[in-house]
Write a structure and sequence with these properties.
The protein is an all-alpha fold and 111 residues long. Among the domains are: 36 residues; 41 residues. 59% of the residues lie in helices and 0% in strands. It is elongated. The model has no long low-confidence stretch (mean pLDDT 81). It comes from Billgrantia ethanolica. This is MobC family plasmid mobilization relaxosome protein.
Length: 111
């Protein structure tokens, strides 16, 4: 087990009584200072880099998704145009519901 470097430096901050209560309420540990260090520093002692947003998506994937969206729009137009009979519309709606379920499962896996 690696030993922690000796902590000799002190950082003083001033907070209002309400801010102190908020910090204590959010802190799951008995020691507020320990929790604050964990929140501000990663285990190696480096600053935790703030996320600048999601990673850019693959352009090929975006093109594929746009194509899928276009196809869905065409299906919706045909369903709403009245070209298809009731049985055809029911089949299309059932297929779209299945696609929706699959997408929900994919979203759940990537959250």
């Amino acid at each position: 087990m690696a030993t922690q470097p000796k902590r000799e430096k002190i950082i003083k901050i001033r907070v209002s009584p309400e801010e102190l209560e908020t910090l204590k309420w959010r802190c799951p540990k008995p020691q507020l200072a320990e929790w604050m260090r964990e929140q501000c520093l990663n285990p190696d002692g480096d600053w935790v880099r703030q996320s600048k947003g999601p990673e850019p998506a693959d352009p090929a994937l975006l093109r594929q998704l746009a194509g899928i969206g276009n196809n869905l729009n065409q299906v919706a137009r045909r369903v709403n145009s009245g070209e298809w009979g009731a049985a055809d519309r029911v089949q299309v709606i059932a297929a779209l519901a299945a696609v929706e379920r699959e997408l929900a499962e994919l979203r759940a896996l990537h959250r």
